[in-house]
């Protein structure tokens, strides 16, 4: 874990000073990176650590974003006041939605989450009760106001997102060292063995969902603040696929892996705007290539695997 | 009553298209336990290829019966080829890798095909020529069937029957079914599983190609990202019918088409899709193996 | 706590300072659907802006500075539009032409307003003027004007009795349909059925079958050409014997391609199309467009946006500055600027006044003929 801690600290220091050296275009990209990194980490809790095939993560991201948008624009809440809702509502959604399907085998769970995602998008588009704003979404979201000061510059939003990422990293660190984290890891490795050890599988799986949803919801709120607008297509199936792919391409349960995955998925396309049209094609090809060459991800987690030198010794002993 | 029958005809037509595409999904899943996310995009690809074949070799106006058949055959061959290529590049290297890696690879392949379409044919909407099939319609006391709908219904039924016979009465069909039950045991029986996989990709892609061409003829507006929506619906159909089961895919497709049409017609067009997915989730919760699906000993 | 504000102010002034120091160029943004289903409209807008900017640059630029165009593709999607807005603002533009769809325009509006960047768009949704942003100038006409015209045409000219109104879910289309329904009811009539379709689903047989049972005289569709063409085909396929009238966004060559033979006899309500514009500036610019791009602009929308750009450039030259507030004040007070699409005047809330509407009927050979005008 020590290597990881060093990497984490370096990353944190670099990102803390980033706004001082970045111009406004890059600052925007930086904010996006931070927000999506938070979501990716939250997906990593569900997919990478607990091994649940969740392809509907954009739902929780979206509920958080829309919670802020609706409460602020339709009901006049202050942005700060919407944040608790942006965290709690996704958690409730996670428990309600994941509850009935948590016992399903991998592929079926996957399909069910896809189904939920699509229903979610439809609900947003159909504008029930006239609160979700329809296909165009909601815009004109207010700025963050703290003690009467308006934090509307990109730098301020950057640090809000950065703060969220720090909290996320802290949560994950604590998770890994806790009973919950160990349970999730165990469930991922061998569910039947875990069950026979007395681990309550549905409880821990739901916990993973709830925790992931909470973080994603908070990130959604920051997303809404950044763009002053939310609309259904940011929370569709394709987005869920992106989050799913980030965790797997980067490396499940691996901190540098998820960061790399987020970087590749969201920052690299900005760098390659010259190949603007071919962006997604190169992406897709990269996804295929990465899986073929490194099926466990670009930077897989090393926790729990038998160290290489032990394996070689066994071979040599033959 | 004739409104009901009309909705029925509409629903069955679309259902047949879903069924054709669903077959591709279900065959691949049955043998490889892999959801081939790129299948829907292959279907879209085939519509585009059909369009190009038509404009390149026939100009506009030379729409005889023979030329239509030729377009179908040429397109199916091209798409089958791409399907096999897809399997070779994106799936075969991952046979022994964790399942999730194959899923990501499939998603990546889907993006590649989708954007490949965009790069080749441009991002603008392409419009299929209007009179590939004669636009006659028949009127049975208020219920209209168009020539195109009729062809779709009949041809799909014929193809599905042919596939059913192939799967159940031929040696290769038995090999496919064996590989679907247990790949390793099949290998022990001397079945060349690699060849089986290539065959299912060829058949699946061809059926998908025919479905794609019909989508082009029936709906006529092609966008490069239309594949994923059709693919998703077809996939739902396969699940409803029981993924891995060929009669299941056929049944699922038809039921999905009917369900969609009836909900849209009688309850509400805006919530039709939502109803469909709610149905999907209910089926997954209550009977995940679908209507005709695998009866496994494994608890799901 | 003040740090945020100070840091923000420092950053902003540095940005502005560097822009000024580096500026031999001034930047104008284009936010349009360059890809996606309305790609040919978006490309038309981008092309026309290019044409106008090149002409201006050749003549010495804007107040001596060369104009640089920064384009952002919003794919006609609201979220992308919000992202584009941030991007263009960060790139340092002082004005933006965009977007084609009302939804994308509205999503970006607040960001431009907060950053004092001028915005002009062809979006016709009435809600665009709701917030009365001083940065926003509509270069086309509002839905309510079209709604009134349509209602008048239906009730007083065509004397339709059973009217079906269809729209999609976008704020533009639903707004236009609602304005039309309201106007029809104001004239004392009633609408038989008001329905919504999902844009892009391609299969409208379900709702059309429902409509068939109502035996309508006319089906009015207020959405986009990509759906309108297919609705028309499927209407005829289901043997629904009703007139089809399309709102302004059906006015695009792809409508005829999609509808094929069934396009003949369809009425489309819109402002005059480029070829019918009687103004001098029109002939000049349309010829220049055709010469440069080897085709005609896809519709009137590219042209009204071009007018939006010309009007802003005119504002810069008259106020001799790039101060967007000054330009905005000037534009609000401006009288009868000779636009390609006619005299341009703005109301205090950014609304363009004085548009004229026509009814075009599509002929068997695919051409448009003006069949009614006020």
Concise summary:
Chain A has 318 residues and is mainly alpha-helical.
Q: What does it look like?
A:
The complex is a heterotrimer of chains A (318), B (300) and C (374). Chain A has 318 residues and is mainly alpha-helical. Chain A is built from 13 helices and four strands. The model of chain A has no long low-confidence stretch (mean pLDDT 85). Chain B has a domain of 209 residues. The relative contact order of chain B is 0.20. The model of chain B has no long low-confidence stretch (mean pLDDT 86). In chain B, strands 1-4 form a two-stranded antiparallel sheet. Chain B starts with a helix and ends in a 14-residue tail after the last helix. Chain B is mainly α. Chain C has twelve helices and 15 strands. Chain C starts with a helix and ends with a strand. Classes of the chains: A mainly alpha (318), B mainly alpha (300), C alpha/beta (374). Chains in contact: A-B, A-C, B-C. Chains A and B meet through helix 5, helix 10 and helix 12 of A and helix 4, helix 9 and helix 11 of B.
* Shape summary of chain A: globular
Estimate what percentage of residues of chain B fall within beta strands: under 5%
User: Span from first to last CA of chain A?
Assistant: 31 Å
SSE string of chain A:
HHHHHEEEHHHHEHHHH
Q: Major beta sheet of chain A, specifics?
A: 2 strands, antiparallel
Largest interface (CB within 8 Å) is between: A-B, 43 and 47 residues
**Roughly what is the average pLDDT of chain B, rounded to an integer?**
86
Helices and strands in order, then pairings?
The complex is a heterotrimer of chains A (318), B (300) and C (374).
Chain A: H1 2-21, H2 24-49, H3 58-73, H4 79-101, H5 106-126, E1 138-139, E2 144-146, E3 149-151, H6 154-176, H7 179-189, H8 191-196, H9 201-227, E4 229-230, H10 237-250, H11 255-271, H12 279-293, H13 308-317
Antiparallel strand pairs in A: 1-4, 2-3
Chain B: H1 2-32, H2 39-58, H3 65-91, H4 99-121, E1 126-127, E2 137-140, E3 143-146, H5 147-169, H6 171-181, H7 183-188, H8 193-219, E4 221-222, H9 226-241, H10 246-267, H11 272-286
Antiparallel strand pairs in B: 1-4, 2-3
Chain C: H1 2-22, E1 25-32, H2 39-58, E2 66-73, H3 78-91, E3 95-98, H4 102-114, E4 118-121, E5 136-138, H5 143-158, E6 163-167, H6 171-186, E7 193-196, H7 205-212, E8 218-221, H8 225-237, E9 243-246, H9 253-259, E10 267-270, H10 280-293, H11 300-319, H12 324-333, E11 337-339, E12 342-346, E13 352-353, E14 358-362, E15 368-373
Parallel strand pairs in C: 1-2, 1-3, 3-4, 4-5, 6-7, 6-8, 8-9, 9-10
Antiparallel strand pairs in C: 10-14, 11-12, 12-13, 14-15
Helix pairs in contact in C: 2-11, 3-4, 5-6, 8-9, 11-12
